[in-house]
Amino acid sequence: MIERSGNPIMGRGGSTMTTPGRLVLLVLCTVLGALGGVEVAQAQQPQPATFPMSVTENRAPGATGQVTITSVGTGQIRVDIRVTGLQPNAEHAAHIHTAQGARCDTGAPVTYPLTNVRVDASGVGTSSTVVQLTADKPVQANNAYVNVHRAANPPGEGIICANITMTYTVETVRAAAGAQVPAAPRTGTGPLAERQTGWALLALVVLLLAGGVGAARRARAR
Q: Is residue 3 part of a domain?
């Protein structure tokens, strides 16, 4: 008499599944759960906020723009400026100004300098700066603005500006970054490589499961 290893369990129609088969199913469920986790992590990206810019006292006729702020790390925000309709091939200083009740170009002091806005030949100016916030200098809603000035040095008067209507502090940015930035991929070079690895594991588990079912049928046929 042939003694079979494993404790069989009854399935539908009286079929049995051995312990190895149950283990294969357990691994299959684990892999599927991991793949779902990858998709969730990919969806959890930092959410940027966009603030429209307006020309100050007709100092840059026809110019339009926006400021986009994104939480990117512990106590850090990225400030992206894009302005169209400026004089081509120019450069403009830009800053975050803060004070109680500060609104566009009200003379509030500079709190965080930004990378100069560089304008290309078509009149499109851009700037991107990662700002390290400090606890004593929060950027508070309706008490801060981003100002683009007439020149680079000296900056001169502001020509186009955006009021900031959200609050950014070391604490809030830390919480946002911790909740939204996905963890580094465990394998490969990014989310795509991790998905490919997961699907390869899933295919392997399916093959093992098919082999286990076939072996069980052959054993019952003896």
A: no
Range of the domain at 59: 49-180
185-217: pLDDT as tens digits: 444 444 555 556 566 666 666 666 666 656 666
DSSP state of 186: S
* Together in a domain, 88 and 13: no
Q: What is the largest CA-CA distance in the chain?
A: 98
**83 in the same domain as 175:** yes
10 Å Cβ neighbour count for 53? 24
Total-model pTM: 0.63
Report the CATH number at residue 150.
Answer: 2.60.40.200
Percent of the chain's residues with pLDDT above 90: 55
Strands (E), the chain: 9-10, 16-17, 49-55, 64-73, 76-84, 91-98, 110-119, 125-132, 144-149, 158-163
> Pick from 65, 218, 91, 86: which is nearest to 152 by CA?
91
